[in-house]
Amino acid sequence: MPSEIQVANAALLRIGEQPIQSFTADGGRAPLANATFAIYRDALLRSHPWNFAMERQELAADATAPVWEYAYAYTRSGDPYDLRVLKVEDPDNYGFKIEGRKIVTDLGPPLNVVYLKRVTDPYQWDSLFAEAFISKLAMEWAEPCAKDAELIEKITKEFEAKIQAAFGVDGQEGSTELIPEGSWIEANC
């Protein structure tokens, strides 16, 4: 897998721009890359439960409970790179809510969660995610850089195809989750 600069340069080259030496370099497209690279990466990471970005954690309850409605509060993962809670182990269907960096619930400790973490190292990315991200950068950067409607349309279609391929392959890794008994599937309509 490439470095962040190589990822940015691959996107720039797709839209006919010159590569950059660093995100902090003067001139060229470095200021644009520096200002948007992490924003677009995190948005794409958050958009799908990527297998390479999942992490499980057991959380201890906070010393202070929520003021009302719920019995427990848990500080999300302790990891500032937690982008999204994907699952809370909730066998009794108590339910939960995300409130800022907290998970509030009536579930007693410990709380088992699966969350999506921010993966900044391109060496840790799935190769199809990397391809889709390069296409996303090219798509986002095409308008301010190239200002060519035909190129923007082409790059947008390329991104849509690559992201669908990445979603599809990523979704095939692992077992299918079964719908629990007593769900809407048993409802008499």
- The averaged pLDDT comes out at 90
- Secondary-structure element string: HHEEEEEEHH
| Helix fraction by DSSP (H/I, runs of at least 4) | 25-40%
Distance between the termini: 51 Å
Strand order of the largest sheet: 1-6-3
Provide a brief overview of the structure.
By secondary structure, the protein is an alpha+beta fold. Helices cover 37% and strands 17% of the residues.
Description:
With 189 residues, this protein is an alpha+beta fold. It folds into two domains: 4-48 and 126-171; 52-117, no CATH class. Helices cover 37% and strands 17% of the residues. The strands form two sheets. Strands 1-6-3 form a three-stranded antiparallel sheet, with helices on one face. Strands 2-5-4 form a three-stranded antiparallel sheet, with no helix packed on it. Helix 1 crosses helix 3 and helix 2 packs across helix 3. The radius of gyration is 21 Å and the shape is elongated.
